[in-house]
Amino acid sequence: MSDILNKAIVLVLNRNWQAINIRTPADAFCQLATNTATALDIALGADAQAEALRPVSWDEWCTLPIRAGDYAVQTIRGAIRVPTVIVAMNYAKVPKRRPKLCARTIRERDGNRCQYTGALLRPDEGNLDHVLPRSRGGPDTWENLVWSSKQVNTRKGNRLPHEAGLKLLNVPRAPKELPVTAFLRNAHDIAEWKLFITE
Question: What pTM was computed for the model?
Answer without folding.
Answer: 0.67
